């Protein structure tokens, strides 16, 4: 599968040169823009596999655009800049940038950096999804435990009976146990 890349740099020659290099290396450039706001908007729209951002751009600078893209988990960002000060590197790291490339771009540096950056991004997204799923499971368990407690108190059921009742209600109504537990807890609030 071809990696889809968005380029954002305020210098047309750099965008054109970068596009040629990327295409020669087998990447698909899905767009190129000259400012950070356009980069963010196009990233939202196209969902590229990687965004290459220059630091100094009009409207919204590259670091701000990188932070916006990172905050919404839209794509990994590779920062392209003529500067390599420690302060700028730290700002890039804080903005969620996964790769850093200094100008002028050397073709031999590009492919390894793109491949490592996109691989790290996929790992991050997998961990994020796993964390989200775990949080969801924990929240579901908490809701079910509270609903069981309510049924045990209200209807004098044992813990096993309360669990089976929630399970049966879920199957009969074609709802999840979480939805049934939420409905039970809502009923508790209405009758309190």
From TrEMBL:
A Pfam cross-reference name: Response_reg
Domain Response regulatory: start-end pairs: 4-118
Keywords assigned: DNA-binding, Phosphoprotein
InterPro entries xref list: ANTAR, CheY-like_superfamily, Sig_transdc_resp-reg_antiterm, Sig_transdc_resp-reg_receiver, WalR-like, WH-like_DNA-bd_sf
Record keyword Cytoplasm present: no
Annotated positions of the 4-aspartylphosphate modification: 54
GO cellular component: cytosol; protein-DNA complex
Gene Ontology process terms (BP): regulation of DNA-templated transcription
The keyword Disulfide bond is annotated on this UniProt entry: no
UniProt GO MF annotations: phosphorelay response regulator activity; RNA binding; transcription cis-regulatory region binding
Superkingdom assignment: Bacteria
Location of the ANTAR domain: 124-185
UniProt-recorded name of the protein: Fis family transcriptional regulator
């Amino acid at each position: 599968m071809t990696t889809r890349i968005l380029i954002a740099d305020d210098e047309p020659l750099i965008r054109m040169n970068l596009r040629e290099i990327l295409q020669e290396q087998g990447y698909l450039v899905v767009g190129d823009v000259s400012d950070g706001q356009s980069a963010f908007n196009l990233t939202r729209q196209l969902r590229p596999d990687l965004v290459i951002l220059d630091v100094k751009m009009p409207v919204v600078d590259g670091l701000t655009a990188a932070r916006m893209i990172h905050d919404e988990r839209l794509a990994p960002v590779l920062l392209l800049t003529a500067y390599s000060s420690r302060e700028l590197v730290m700002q890039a790291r804080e903005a969620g940038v996964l790769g850093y490339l200094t100008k002028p771009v050397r073709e031999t540096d590009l492919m390894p950096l793109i491949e490592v950056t996109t691989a790290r991004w996929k790992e991050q997204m997998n961990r994020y999804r796993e964390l989200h799923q775990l949080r969801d499971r924990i929240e579901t368990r908490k809701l079910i435990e509270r609903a069981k407690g309510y049924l045990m108190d209200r209807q004098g059921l044992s813990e096993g009976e309360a669990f089976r009742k929630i399970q049966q209600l879920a199957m009969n109504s074609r709802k999840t146990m979480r939805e049934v537990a939420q409905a039970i807890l809502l009923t508790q609030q209405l009758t309190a």
